[in-house]
Amino acid sequence: MKKHLLLAASLLFTLNAFAGSFPDISLTDLKSDIAAKKVTLLDVNGPVSYANGHIPGAIDYTAHTADLAKFLPADKSSLIVAYCGSEHCGAYARAAEAAKKLGYTNVQHFKPGIAGWKASGEPTEK
User: For the packed helices 92-101 and 2-19, what is the interaxial angle rounded to 10 degrees?
Assistant: First the structure.
């Protein structure tokens, strides 16, 4: 039992360490970048959540982990924004790290996640 708790604590620490390494983007800036078609969104909530509603235009990261590069823009300085369920979720870091490893230099985090997007009254896409 202690080993499981230690492993869980270690995993949370690792996710939180990644979670602090990408700047946050505000709702206002994200909406503006979406309207201007200046952002590629990565939704890490999984296929069920994605099917139930995601930020319009977002890519289902879970479904495209293996072939992510073909869904991202050619320009490595393009804005990539990763998000997950809520501000308490660090899972977005998997997608953000994947984009960073592919050479993208402008990777950000939408901290409120899909819950914050919906709470602000913004529409989702199914």
Answer: 60
Domain locations along the chain: 2-119
Q: What is the pLDDT of residues 70-90, one digit of tens each?
A: 999 999 999 999 999 999 999
Structure tokens at 99: 């984009």
Residues of the chain scoring pLDDT < 70: 1-20
CATH 3.40.50.880: does it fit domain 2-119? no
- Per DSSP, 105 falls in state S
| Whole-prediction pTM | 0.84
Query: At residue 118, what are phi and psi to the nearest 5 degrees?
Result: -65, -40
